[in-house]
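Page 37, continued from 36.
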């Protein structure tokens, strides 16, 4: 019996020649693509393949490419399972995972005047925990005889976000990183306790001091008892009523006097805290990153700084690869110290260079970025920390733009 599969292959071949062997036209129907959604505890995936091409890929011979019988479903599931075991394409946190093939059906899609049938296969990847990275890699461009693949499209969705991926022969890898925004509640370190200072209600203390002076003086002057105690009551009420008026923060008399902050010491403090914000991202574990950052950054700033540094190290335009920092060099520092030594804070206007290495498709290259920002640092009982950052400028540099030795 003459089957319809060869006829359909011939028609697809004619369409291919009409579009050009390179499939340069953007509206050509994709022969294969993936739709993936990351859910709690699992990664679900819908694989779609042009129905006439399934037989070429899996080395099958079927009479009707538009229908599926029970035996054909079993055979396709076995062949897909074997093929993906031999050609893994997905890594979760650098661990290769194979899909579990599930239900399948024939669906119809319309492209211009043509109606094309696809085999839709539901697959699922085991995900013991929400991954921090997902690497999608494809190297098999000749699985179809009549329809060479020059690009592979995929759609990844998570939470309320989604991103379209496109892999090509020269760019066959895409790395997805979990968003910097936390998906679970993060217990931030407690706010540092303020320095040991007391709030003195000046007006209230003045009334109280007046009372202490007036009381013995009233006995010496032999004032009338009714007048004396009336005035005492008035002074006491005035002292209580003005307890929250005209307050002033000051160092308690029993505390040691604070020495003025030296410029060299301030620079040393800043450089150590600044360096630590990048060193934290050398860890792979997210909790270790947070714990290291918490030693240098105020709790209110911790979440924002984590997001900003995290995003600066991920090169999304180059497939999501990570830039590994190899050196942080401060080029300029302009320090502003307070006139009052009781104010345990200072500002730094700094320019610095971040040098990193990017591993990209079998080779490495250097990435240089220059930043300028204003930092506010403050001391508490827990020590010095960065409490505010305002980025003024940032730019990417080519390696030959830097002076020799830098």
């Amino acid at each position: 019996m003459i089957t319809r599969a060869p006829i359909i292959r011939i028609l697809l071949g004619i369409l291919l020649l009409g579009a050009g062997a390179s499939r340069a036209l953007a509206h050509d129907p994709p022969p294969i693509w993936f739709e993936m959604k990351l859910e709690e505890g699992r990664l679900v995936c819908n694989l779609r393949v042009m129905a006439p091409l399934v037989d070429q890929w899996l080395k099958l011979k079927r009479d009707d490419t538009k229908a599926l019988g029970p035996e054909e479903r079993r055979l396709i599931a076995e062949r897909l399972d074997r093929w993906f075991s031999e050609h893994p394409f997905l890594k979760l946190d650098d661990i290769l995972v194979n899909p579990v093939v599930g239900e399948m059906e024939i669906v119809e899609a319309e492209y211009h005047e043509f109606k094309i049938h696809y085999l839709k296969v539901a697959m699922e990847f085991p995900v013991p925990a929400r991954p921090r990275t997902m690497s999608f890699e494809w190297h098999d461009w000749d699985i179809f005889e009549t329809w060479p693949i020059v690009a592979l499209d995929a759609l990844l969705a998570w939470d309320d976000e989604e991103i379209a991926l496109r892999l090509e022969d020269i760019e066959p890898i895409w790395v997805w990183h979990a968003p910097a925004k936390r998906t679970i509640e993060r217990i931030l370190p407690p706010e540092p306790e303020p320095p040991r200072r007391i709030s003195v209600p000046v007006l209230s203390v003045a009334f109280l001091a007046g009372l202490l002076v007036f009381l013995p003086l009233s006995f010496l002057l032999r004032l009338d008892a009714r007048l004396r105690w009336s005035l005492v009551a008035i002074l006491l009420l005035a002292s209580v009523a003005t307890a929250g008026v005209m307050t002033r923060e000051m160092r308690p008399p029993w505390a040691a006097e604070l020495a003025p902050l030296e410029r060299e010491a301030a620079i040393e403090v800043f450089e150590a805290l600044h360096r630590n914000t990048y060193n934290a991202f050398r860890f792979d574990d997210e909790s270790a990153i947070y714990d290291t950052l918490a030693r240098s950054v105020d709790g209110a700033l911790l979440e924002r700084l984590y997001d900003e540094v995290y995003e600066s190290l991920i090169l999304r335009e180059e497939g999501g690869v990570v830039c590994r920092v190899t050196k942080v060099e401060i080029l300029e520092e302009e320090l502003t110290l307070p006139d009052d030594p009781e104010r345990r804070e200072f500002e730094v206007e700094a320019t610095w260079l971040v040098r990193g290495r990017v591993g990209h498709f079998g080779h490495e290259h250097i990435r240089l970025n220059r930043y300028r920002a204003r930092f506010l640092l403050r001391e508490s009982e827990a020590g010095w920390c960065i409490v505010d950052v305002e980025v003024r400028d940032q730019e990417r540099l080519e390696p030959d733009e830097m002076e020799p030795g830098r």
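The CA atoms of residues 37 and 157 lie 5 Å apart. Flag for discussion at group meeting. The helical segments are 5-19, 51-58, 70-86, 202-220, 225-241, 263-279, 286-294, 299-313.
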